[in-house]
Structure formats: structure tokens, C-alpha cells
Design a protein that fits this description.
The chain has a domain of 285 residues: ABC transporter involved in vitamin B12 uptake, BtuC (Orthogonal Bundle), CATH 1.10.3470. Helices cover 69% and strands 1% of the residues. α3 crosses α12, α8 packs across α9 and α12 runs parallel beside α17. It is globular, with a radius of gyration of 24 Å.
Length: 423
């Protein structure tokens, strides 16, 4: 045995690569870097709206229901229960949110009612999956169907007799107030109008996120750090996460696995219901049939993109909200400018794959795709309208494909659990 404690001739193991850790400073630098790419694209393309306050404000509003649905999926899947019934729970939230606001004359009553409506869907999912061991996917699909049917029936029963209401929509809902940081709105607007490189873009971002923001939006944003604190900094959250990783080990330590799964799934439904209530109370100020538009499924994709973590989930929701806002405001012109941003991002990913990960083949493929996207930008002046409507969905698929190799779902996610069974 040598002095180092190793046998002669024993092969030395390669040192493990340091694991990347996301910190607030790295996140801030990443956001500023992304804004820099947007600023470059704005100057080159002349599409000033891609960094305007209106675009960022619209993006925030569009990201909220997706983020709330994603938070709902996070709570459920961290406890080991797959929840693809988020769409149905959101649908329940849209109807109950509108009904609560109209019944009690207050949008905040609608917020509470929407959360309760979504939580009822969570109760159904918990009864089926946790108590009776029904397949999680089957239960989720059933909730999506039931949510759609129940709200259609309730609309005919309740809204059809109201002035301005009908079988497919509710009357107008009382407006919810907004908040702004005083004293900075006009200066930021002036700076933004100058179209200075990066400075005006930063002013547009700050203005869009601090002026005329709905109180509901502020509540939704605060739920992201609150979820992180509860699930990662408390004993309660540790028990929930243990149910999604090693439920049998958790049971052996005295954790009531059924109870914690129940709590997580009901909270999941409540958060999805809040996302639905946002659509009816803030986004539209009325309930409409088909209002969710698949946002429950997009929220699920945002959760996966975020690697089952609140911060990454919020980034995924923001990305989808931003691309959705672009196609709604200026359509083909703004989305065309986004092609340059995508090309630059793919080029940076290719360099990272080559230098840090030493994956030559993947780097070459990524660089070729970046070149093709850049050629598309240089050879065209706009993007066909048929393409712009699906831009958010294509963006989501692209990001998920790039992020898929670093994802790790909870170990027992979707696996039926029965007390006393080892497998």
C-alpha cells in the first residue's frame, strides 16, 4: 500500500466533473444575456416591439396561468402522482372563478372560488389514484373530460338566465385592481422611446414588469418562491418529496404516505384552479367555453422543462408567455426577429456542447440547425401567419428537446403505491 492509501498498480479514477449549480447571480446574468440577444435582434431587424413594455407586460399575463398550472403539476408529481388532469382542473377554475366573482360581487371571491373548484378536481384525482390505486393517466384523462362536461352543464344552468350570459359564457366580471411602482413609469417610457441599444430594452423590461400589474399576477408570482420554501426548506415539504422518491422508505420512518399524497394532489388542483380563475377574472373578465386552450398541458410541459423545480418552471412559463405575446402583438414581424435570437442561442449551445461537454457530433448538428435558422432570417422579411400561431408550441418543443438530457423526474412518479408493499 502506497503512502496515498492506494495499492500499487490500482487505476486512478477520473475526477468527477463539478456539477453546475444555479444561483441567483447566475440566473440574473442569464436573464441579462438573453435581453442582450433580444436587443441585438431588435437593432438588426428593426422590430422594436420585441422588447417593448407592452410585450413584456402581455408576456407576464400570458405566463401566469401556465405557471400556476405548472406549479400544480409540481406539487402532485413531487409526491409521486402524475397529474395530466391539470387541464380539467383549470377548466373548473375558470367557471368557479367567474361564478364566485359574480355571486359575491368581488373578483377576490372569484379567486377563492376558482381555487376551490380546481381543488375539487384534485380531490377526485386523489380518490382515484391515491385511495383506489387507479392508473394516474386514466384518472387524469377522465378529469379533463369531466371538467369540460360539468362546466358546460353549469353554464346552461346558471349563466343562461343572467343578463349578458349564455350557455357558452358568463356575464362581465368586476375588474380587479392593478399596482404600479410610483415615480418610474414616465422616465422608463421616455428611455424606451429613445431606442438606445440595451438601455431602452432594459427600460422596456422593467416598465412591463412594474407598471399596471394585476394584484392576481403579484399573488401568482409570490407562489413560486413560496412553493420552493415549503417543498425544499420545511419538514412538511421533505415528507412530500420523500413520497415521490422512496415512499416505502418514508413509510418505514413513520410518514403517512397516503395523507401527504392527498394533500399534494389537492393543492395541485387548487393551483391549477387559480390558473383557470386568472383566465376568467383577469385575462378576459368573463368565463368562456374552451377558455383554457390547452394551457394545462403547456403548464405540464413547463414543469418538465423546469426539471420539476419552481425556478425552472417559472422560466419555462415565461418563455411560452413571451413567444405567445409576440405572435399576438405583431405577428410575423416580431416572430421573424425571434429567428435571429434562436439562431444565436443555438450557436451558443453548440459552443457549449463542444467546449464543456466535448460532444462533437451534437455540437455539429446544433450548429447546422443554427445556420439554417439564420439563413431563414436573412432570406425572408416576415414569417407566414400560419406559422406564427404555433410559434409558442414550437418553441416549447424546441426547448424541451434541448433540455431533455438533464431532466430527472421523481423516482416513484406515476408508480402506484400500496401500504406495506415493497414494489
Amino acid at each position: 500500500m502506497s503512502a496515498a492509501g492506494l495499492s500499487v498498480g490500482q487505476p486512478l479514477e477520473a475526477p468527477a466533473k463539478p456539477r453546475f449549480k444555479m444561483t441567483p447571480s447566475i440566473l440574473l446574468l442569464g436573464l441579462l444575456g438573453l435581453l442582450l440577444l433580444l436587443a441585438i435582434a431588435r437593432v438588426v431587424s428593426g422590430a422594436n416591439d420585441i422588447t417593448s413594455a407592452g410585450t413584456f407586460s402581455a408576456a407576464l399575463g400570458l405566463a401566469v396561468p401556465i405557471g400556476l398550472a405548472g406549479l400544480g403539476g409540481l406539487w402532485s408529481e413531487r409526491s409521486g402522482v402524475v397529474n395530466i388532469g391539470l387541464e380539467g382542473m383549470m377548466i373548473l377554475g375558470t367557471w368557479f372563478g367567474a361564478w364566485g366573482a359574480l355571486q359575491f360581487g368581488s373578483p377576490w371571491a372569484g379567486v377563492i372560488a376558482g381555487a376551490i373548484g380546481g381543488a375539487l378536481g384534485g380531490v377526485i384525482h386523489a380518490v382515484a389514484t391515491v385511495t383506489f390505486g387507479v392508473d394516474h393517466i386514466i384518472s387524469g384523462v377522465a378529469i379533463n373530460i369531466v371538467g369540460l362536461g360539468v362546466t358546460e352543464y353549469l353554464s346552461k344552468l346558471v349563466f343562461e338566465g343572467m343578463k349578458g350570459g349564455g350557455a357558452k359564457q358568463s356575464p362581465r366580471i368586476p375588474a380587479m385592481g392593478t399596482a404600479s411602482i410610483p415615480g418610474i413609469g414616465d422616465p422608463l417610457k421616455t428611455i424606451e422611446s429613445k431606442h438606445w441599444f440595451f438601455v431602452s430594452d432594459l427600460a422596456g423590461l422593467i416598465s412591463g414588469l412594474t407598471q399596471n400589474v394585476s394584484w392576481f399576477t403579484i399573488l401568482a408570482v409570490l407562489l413560486v418562491p413560496l412553493t420552493f420554501y415549503l417543498l425544499w426548506r420545511t419538514a412538511f415539504g421533505l415528507r412530500i418529496r420523500s413520497c415521490g422518491e422512496r415512499p416505502v422508505a418514508a413509510e418505514s420512518l413513520g410518514v403517512n404516505v397516503y395523507l401527504y399524497k392527498w394533500i399534494a394532489v389537492v393543492v395541485s388542483g387548487g393551483l391549477a384552479g387559480l390558473g383557470g380563475a386568472f383566465l376568467s377574472i383577469v385575462a378576459s373578465q368573463l368565463y368562456r367555453d374552451g377558455q383554457t386552450g390547452g394551457r394545462g398541458f403547456i403548464g405540464l410541459a413547463a414543469m418538465i422543462f423546469g426539471n420539476w423545480r419552481p425556478g425552472g418552471l417559472a422560466a419555462g412559463a415565461a418563455l411560452f408567455g413571451y413567444t405567445d405575446a409576440l405572435q399576438l402583438r405583431q405577428g410575423g414581424v416580431s416572430v421573424h426577429a425571434l429567428l435571429l435570437v434562436v439562431a444565436m442561442l443555438l450557436a451558443l449551445v453548440a459552443v457549449y456542447q463542444l467546449v464543456r461537454q466535448e460532444r462533437i457530433r451534437a455540437a455539429v448538428i446544433t450548429f447546422v440547425v443554427a445556420a439554417l435558422v439564420l439563413a431563414w432570417f436573412l432570406l425572408t422579411d416576415t414569417v407566414p401567419e400560419q406559422f406564427t400561431s404555433v410559434t409558442p408550441h414550437i418553441t416549447t418543443l424546441l426547448v424541451l428537446s434541448l433540455a431533455s438530457q438533464r431532466l430527472r423526474m421523481p423516482a416513484a412518479d406515476g408508480i402506484p403505491y400500496r401500504r406495506g408493499h415493497a414494489g
